[in-house]
Each structure stands twice: as structure tokens, then as C-alpha cells.
Design brief:
This protein is mainly alpha-helical and 189 residues long. The protein is 59% helix and 11% strand.
């Protein structure tokens, strides 16, 4: 894990926080240890805050535009990109079943959020913000092509003066990180 700390340019005080941040629930279940889900919850908010602060300080856009940019910058695909830049996939602990399936992008994104939570709790707001500035901000130009397909669909439909409705078919995952399967219905106004 020292290689990760070197990449992040940090000197951790509480190694157990980082170990937990990189422990997927499948591994935790097999080894009766804590998983990263609670850290992921906090890390999501920490990354959102840093991104919102960055946009507020650097953009002259209105709230709607900044909200859209923040959503794009912290979506799962963007988090995976940032995580891959620090080779986080090499440090995540997975259970045998998950390891056999291969690392899912959602697990990598979740671990990235949990890692930021660990840095925040261990080293504080400014240290975590500094890591954010080194790891995330240099790659913002790479996420400009990430599409929010739901918003794009709504914009296309509204341009044609039509409406769409969504019907949730199924949902899975923990309450704080649900994955929904939805059907979309297009109808004339």
C-alpha cells in the first residue's frame, strides 16, 4: 500500500482507515472484517464538496450549469477514470467470488470515494483537498465527453415538444448506492 501512498503524496497516520477503504464487502464477509461502505458514503459527500467548491471558485456560470458540471465530474465513469490514474484497482481487496468475476467499475468508483473519506478522516480537510487537486482536477478535461444519457434524452425529447415517463422495473444494491433498471416511455403532448 506504500506505493499508493507515494502516488497520493501522503503520509498516513491511521493505516486501518485505508485498509477499510479498500475492503469490498465480499472480502469483508469472507474475513469477518469491516468493509468500505460507510467510508464510501462520506467520501461521496467529500468529493462532491471539493468539486462544488472548485466550480464555485473557478466558474462564472449559473447554478444549473455548475450542477451539471459537478454531476459529470463525480459520476461513476469519472470516478473510475480518476481511480485508474492512481492504479487503485491494484489495491482493492475482493472476495473470491468478486475476484473471479473481475473488478466492476462500480466497485472501483466506490473504493475511490472511500479512499477520499479515509484521507479526510485521517489527515483532515486541507490534506484531502490537496490530494483532490492533484488527482482529480488535472483530469477534468478528460471527462467532458462523459455523457449523462438521461439528461441528453430529456433534452432531445423536449426539443421535439414531447414528453417521456420512466417506470422503475427493478432496483438492487445498498440503500445509499442503488442501481435502477427503468423503462422509458415516449408519448406525444
Amino acid at each position: 500500500m506504500q506505493k499508493l501512498f507515494d502516488l497520493l503524496q501522503i503520509k498516513p497516520k491511521n493505516l486501518s482507515l485505508y485498509q477499510r477503504a479498500l475492503t469490498h464487502s465480499s472480502y469483508a464477509n469472507e474475513h469477518q472484517t469491516e468493509n468500505n461502505e460507510r467510508l464510501e458514503f462520506l467520501g461521496d459527500a467529500v468529493i462532491d464538496l471539493y468539486m462544488a467548491e472548485h466550480l464555485y471558485m473557478t466558474e462564472k456560470s449559473d447554478e444549473g450549469v455548475m450542477t451539471k458540471k459537478r454531476a459529470q465530474a463525480v459520476c461513476e465513469e469519472a470516478l473510475v477514470l480518476y481511480a485508474e490514474k492512481i492504479e487503485l484497482q491494484n489495491f482493492i481487496l475482493l472476495g473470491k467470488g468478486e475476484k473471479a468475476k473481475g473488478l466492476k467499475k462500480s466497485i472501483l468508483a466506490d473504493a475511490f470515494e472511500a479512499l477520499f473519506s479515509a484521507i479526510y478522516l485521517d489527515l483532515g480537510y486541507l490534506a484531502a483537498k490537496s490530494v483532490f487537486q492533484r488527482i482529480v482536477l488535472p483530469h477534468l478535461d478528460l471527462i467532458e465527453n462523459i455523457k449523462d444519457y438521461k439528461t441528453k434524452l430529456q433534452e432531445l425529447v423536449q426539443a421535439d415538444k414531447r414528453t417521456i415517463t420512466y417506470q422503475i422495473v427493478s432496483e438492487k444494491g445498498p440503500a445509499h448506492n442503488k442501481i435502477f433498471l427503468a423503462e422509458v416511455y415516449l408519448e406525444s403532448i
